[in-house]
Amino acid sequence: MSQSITSSDSSVSSVLPRDEQRVLLRKLRSEILARYRPHIKKGAGPIRVMARIVTELKEECRHQQIDQDIIDAEIVNRTIGDIDLRLVTECEGEAGSTLDYRTLADELGIALPGAQFNGYTANGETYHWLRAQMLECEKLLLSQGYDPRIYDIYGVGNPVLRGWMAEEMQKWGIPVEAQHVNLSLGAMNGIDNVLRGLAHIYRTQGTTEWGILFPEPGFNVPEWQAQSYGYHIHCYKTLPEQRFKITATQLDTALASAPDIRVLYLTVSNNPTAFSYSAEELNALHAVLRKYREQDRQIYIIADLAYIGTGKPEEDRARMATFAAPDVLHNTIFVSSFSKTHTLTGERFGWVTSGDPTVAAAIAVSWTNGLAALPGEWQLRYMAYYRLFQDRPWLTEKLRAFYHLRRARLIAQLQMIDKQYQLFDEIYVDDDATVYNWSKLKDGIDAFSLFEQTGIAGVPGSGFGYDDEYIRFSIGVIPVNPA
């Protein structure tokens, strides 16, 4: 579905009065929703379909000369999780204070020098600092015999940066070294490489079937990736009373009923639900997997850590500590990224850490046969950003506070909307992590009807392998105004 919106009011020769603009916009919104509803579960998947609806609707509204402030009020994009720092308006304290979040784009080097951000002018200091650091990092690599501008026969990234990312994992209590780490173009690329690499291992071992277990609701891209590499997909539908997390008993049942399961994909802090596994819950899962290993059945965990760092630090440290036990670590492959934790989605900075260095070496076939070499300029940029976060640790704290503010505001906003429209059966309060809200809709309401009534575009639960009576909203892209 890619055709433009065509309305009976499509030929607007002059700007309509504002009240008529609103009527026209709502009509256009109803028309595009009616056309896309049959296709929501096809093609690129519900997340991208909902995002496409928003984009196409906005384009048509501009074509119809509808005022921008009306478009902004009637079309609220809460589909994609990316944080657009250029659009941040929140300022909870004095200008330039730690509670002035408008400065984040400047402080993270995203803002161009002199750019205007809702009353704030970027000085560009970090923009220039990052580029100076890239020069210093290139000198460092050359002094150690690594030239990022030529072919890399290993293809998994330069050894200095791999060592730095090992140190990053050590901060979480994970005892690994540089040879455990392979760099990736974000978490999705890392997961794809891991799944392909493990499938290669199974083939060379003569294994005829390999299955993977996905607790749902969950991030659905790895399911598509696993299917393409020949995995047998097993999905386990979790329950609201367990806050949508697989329990030890449920994991045991799933493994016993499907002997081909060799991989468990586990998002430690969950997208879409915004709930996180506690240390106790993780230890219980580890105990189940330990029981099967003692029966000579090796099961790897792919631990997706995309949102570790967005939650309360002491709770994240407790979660990560459960993976440090030698037998657990040996069978865990961690996938990490700066995309969500540091709002650097477009930079695609990720890394894969294998608890067993022999696994890191074995799955590297995915890198050498897929990328040949990681881009040199990209690696230098990655190194500069890592130095930035080491030099200015307060940035991570400020981002965490910013996420907390937006999540709290979104929940309050949804509660206010519910008083007016009675759309929700339950608006869940999260574990103070991720960039989402997960809520249950009343009978007869879905993501489409909610968008039609409120103008807020979310992603239906089917986008995460669950029921469409649930919906995920993002705090990213655009600000959340106070309720």
From TrEMBL:
Needed co-factor(s): pyridoxal 5'-phosphate
InterPro entries: Aminotransferase_I/II_large (IPR004839), AspAT/PAT-like (IPR050596), PyrdxlP-dep_Trfase (IPR015424), PyrdxlP-dep_Trfase_major (IPR015421), PyrdxlP-dep_Trfase_small (IPR015422)
Keyword Transferase tagged: yes
GO molecular function, one term: pyridoxal phosphate binding
GO biological process, one term: amino acid metabolic process
Matches recorded under Pfam families: Aminotran_1_2
Keyword entries, A-Z: Aminotransferase, Pyridoxal phosphate, Transferase
CDD domains, per the entry: AAT_like
SUPFAM superfamilies: PLP-dependent transferases (SSF53383)
Domain Aminotransferase class I/classII large span(s) in chain numbering: 209-475
Family as reported in the entry's similarity comment: Belongs to the class-I pyridoxal-phosphate-dependent aminotransferase family.
PANTHER family assigned to the protein according to its UniProt record, in alphabetical order: ASPARTATE AMINOTRANSFERASE
Protein name: Aminotransferase class I/classII large domain-containing protein
Species annotation: Dictyobacter arantiisoli
Higher taxonomy: Bacteria, Bacillati, Chloroflexota, Ktedonobacteria, Ktedonobacterales
